[in-house]
Write a structure and sequence with these properties.
With about 190 residues, this protein is an alpha+beta fold. It is built from six helices and ten strands. Strand 1 and strand 2 form a beta hairpin.
Length: about 190
């Protein structure tokens, strides 16, 4: 297992009793942060975090290190690629960082050295998001929770606001920092 999978230990024990026990007591520990949400949301966050963990481990392996998990009500970055799913629940997932950091992640994913941050870089980032959300949507459908995925969008100098808060995972991949923002059933507003 990669470092990120080890660090996201709550995700790896979410199947069965461990998750249910956490939900019944109102506490779910996630990398040292208590997932503060209604029990039904906590289940969804945990499932989404599992999808993120699996994808990051598969794409970046030992090169990915989780630095911090925090709950934020606002965030500003140089760039953000994100996607929303709506239906029985609303889900937001975004990759955020500097031009260089996102270009590096896109290059690693595509296994191609992008020298410019252009449509190819953008497509690679959006494909990462699609892979994570596609897996999450499949898992939701197995629980008879229906969602529709909107196309990923990209923002320059976005300001994100989430009144109920969302989670931000700060990752270090090959020495660069990238943020993953996620929200389940909360309002997320982005201005650019």
């Amino acid at each position: 297992k990669s470092d990120i999978s080890k660090q996201l230990n709550i995700i790896l024990v979410t199947r069965g009793r461990a998750l249910m026990k956490g939900c019944k007591t109102g506490k779910s520990e996630y990398a040292g942060v208590t997932v503060q949400a209604k029990p039904e949301r906590r289940l969804l966050y945990t499932e989404q975090l599992q999808c993120i963990s699996d994808m990051i481990a598969r794409l970046f392996g030992e090169e990915a290190l989780l630095e911090q998990v925090s709950r934020v009500k606002s965030d500003q970055d140089e760039f953000m690629a994100c996607q929303t799913m709506t239906g029985d629940v609303t889900v937001f997932l975004g990759l955020a960082g500097t031009r260089d950091s996102l270009q590096t992640v896109a290059s690693m994913y595509a296994r191609e050295n992008f020298t410019l941050f252009d449509e190819d870089s953008y497509d690679a980032l959006c494909e990462i998001i699609n892979c994570i959300n596609g897996t999450f949507a499949t898992r939701l459908s197995e629980e008879e929770i229906r969602v529709s995925m909107y196309p990923p969008v990209y923002y320059l100098k976005p300001e994100m606001k989430a009144e109920d808060g969302c989670y931000k995972l700060s990752l270090l991949i090959r020495g660069i920092r990238v943020g993953i923002l996620l929200s389940v059933d909360g309002e997320v507003e982005i201005r650019s």
